[in-house]
Amino acid sequence: MEEPAESLISDQVELRRWRMSDLDALERAIYESLDHLVPWMPWAADSGRQQTSDFLARNQDEWETRQAFGYAITSDAAVIGSCGLMRRIGAGGLDIGYWLHPHWTGRGLATMAAAALVRQGFQLAGIDRIEIHHDAANPASGSVARRLGFTEVERIRATEGPVAPGELGIDVIWRMTADQWKQRSYFLLAETARESGVRPGRGRCR
């Protein structure tokens, strides 16, 4: 599996590969977001400078081994959150995760970031599905999947890792297949063309 681009742009946000020099910016973003993160992210209850440094180092290792591709979510160069593509659901699949500083929520930025990940994910060889998983008590995360056209496929009892304080321990799984994404992309292209008066071609949508 080849690696994705190290920088992705989606409307009002830019995603860029995490680097060790982001330690101060990420530590500040996490600290300012703790009330927002602790109910949903088990790691947030034990966050600190060393844990954040370990996270960045782990991101470097996972990128090099093609196991995961972590990005800083930025706006006007400021770090406002984190997201990534991860190979945790078997061959041909990627799952994505994301969180935003609470100051930046409610603006559609998480959806923009997730859309960039989905576009990039389906450009990688051998990827036939992308999933978003979240706890059933966190419908805000599911709304991102819904807006992007993902389909909820199942709800299962969580079996891996600790459950955060706000969670029920029930994973909601949303899925987008490569064919669904192509159809959706072509539909959006056609809608844009109609609005602009340009007739879309019949070439392959990417």
Number of strands: 8
> Number of helix segments?
6
Anisotropy-based shape: globular
What's the SSE pattern?
EEHHHEEEHEHEEH
Mean pLDDT: 89
Could you describe the 3D structure shown?
- This protein has 206 residues and is an alpha+beta fold.
- Helices cover 34% and strands 27% of the residues.
- It has a single domain, classed as Gcn5-related N-acetyltransferase (GNAT) (Aminopeptidase), CATH 3.40.630.30.
- It contains 6 helices and 8 strands; from the N terminus they run E-E-H-H-H-E-E-E-H-E-H-E-E-H.
- The protein has an 8-stranded mixed β-sheet, sandwiched between helices.
- Strand 3 and strand 4 form a beta hairpin.
- The two termini are 18 Å apart.
- 27% of the residues are buried.
Helix and strand arrangement:
Layout: E1 7-10, E2 13-17, H1 23-32, H2 34-37, H3 49-64, E3 68-75, E4 78-86, E5 93-100, H4 109-121, E6 129-135, H5 139-147, E7 151-157, E8 170-177, H6 178-196
Parallel strand pairs: 5-6
Antiparallel strand pairs: 1-2, 2-3, 3-4, 4-5, 6-8, 7-8
Helix pairs in contact: 1-3
